[in-house]
Amino acid sequence: MKPPYIYRPLATGHIRLFGLNVPPDCPLNTLQTFELSEAPAYYALSYTWGSRKRTRPLEVDGWVLSVGLNLYAAIRRLRGSSFEEDSAPVKWLWIDKICINQDDMSERSTQIQNVDTISNIRRSRSHWRLDALSIATSIKCHATDQRDKVYGLLGLAAENQDLSRVPDALRADYGLTIEQVYIRVALFFIREYKSLSILTRASGISSDVSRAQRKYKLDFLPTWVPNWCDFTVTEKHTAKSLSWLSHPNYENATTTLCFLEHYNASLGRFAELVEPLNESLLRLRGIKVDTVDKTTPFNSCGRSCEDSLLQFLEIALQFLPRNRDRNTLTDWIASWIKATTAEQYHLGGNTAQQILSDGSAFLFNNLRSYKHIPLCFMPQNNIGEIMDLLRELSTGGNPESYISLATNFCFNRNFIITLGGRMGIAPQATRREDLVFVIFGGGVPYIIRKQRGDSLFVGESYIDGLMRGEAVYAWQRGEMENEILELR
């Protein structure tokens, strides 16, 4: 039986590469060391290679490495193959599981800074900020070590292009726990960019469905810290983010994580971190705007998407304004449509006017038949006027387009109505008496749950009437006060 492979220490600025189709005088599988600046062309592979319990021996330079079954199969498949048409067979690979000594924490921390680990992003003409990379890959990419959900991206991040100026918070340190890594990086994002866009993937409270979708629950992770751990579900089964990846259309542009232009709840004000901070407590300045009064989940108890939207409508109809003139009714219809679609009309290449027509067609078709809406919820003295208005607004509308868009953004969320009569969608764990805050640095309002001494971060929301700086204007007029939120 051949002896196990023994790694020799790597000199600074060097990497190991795994050779597949190398010259005949080399072993079938070889692991060789190169100076990073003089390394041959190679492909980088870095993702989950299967269970550590199910392995196969791989002979390397006359020694044996234990690798997962998936990695073993991939190596066999790649031998003699090429990644692209009309190109030579793959000769050299950088595979984190093989090329880094997994038992040497110092080496892991150093190596992860130097290697581009996702080759398709590496070849793009755009630079990616680390927060954008983290959101883009958090669901689709898996890692054996959950710290690598962040560290595995460092070689690609715009912040790390100059290795002599890498921020301390973005230096790989495998001496830290997963929770410490995630907290450290989240604080860097907020401090550096003065934006709360990264909170789109905050871990939230324990009862939220997103926690149950994680392979690792990280019970000690603060509610405000993004949880980048592997998902157990595909992307279509997760709540859609209300933050946005911005890809500027020019060479050497930087892809960033931000908010849509019409998501401007804090009126462009930067996030204000209030010291002192500790590892678990985030102190931010914001404005308490409203309180959740009614809340109901989307697609619960096996209801169809359309039936869920109709249940939202039943609740909303109970809060129709008493003053039901034409302008008021038009505003209410538009508000309900914007709330249930998170005003994301751009996704289908549509306009705000088109989604208003689509949503109005959905309302007109269902209210016309009374099949789904109890008569007690319909304002009897205004039925004719409402239907005439919906008929007019729905011209050229496609109800199926509305249902599709609303389903995208209501999925795994709750429809809410606040004490102030505002409609919106919020995290699935939202409950009555939760608070609505506009926090400086956030493009959207946030749901907060107060507890003795501090608060829990429930998550981001879309609430019509708070998306364009209305709360900040009210604060500037002296009608509201800002306060320091302590999030744990």
Automatic annotation (TrEMBL):
Task: Output the InterPro entries linked to this UniProt entry.
Answer: HET, HetReg/Transcr_Mod
Q: Which domain of life is it from?
A: Eukaryota
One Pfam family of this chain? HET
Domain named Heterokaryon incompatibility: residues: 42-118
Q: Which residues form the signal peptide?
A: none
**Known PANTHER family for this protein?**
ANKYRIN REPEAT DOMAIN-CONTAINING PROTEIN 39 HOMOLOG-RELATED, HETEROKARYON INCOMPATIBILITY DOMAIN-CONTAINING PROTEIN
Q: What name is this protein filed under?
A: Heterokaryon incompatibility protein (HET) domain-containing protein
Q: Origin organism of this chain?
A: Hirsutella rhossiliensis
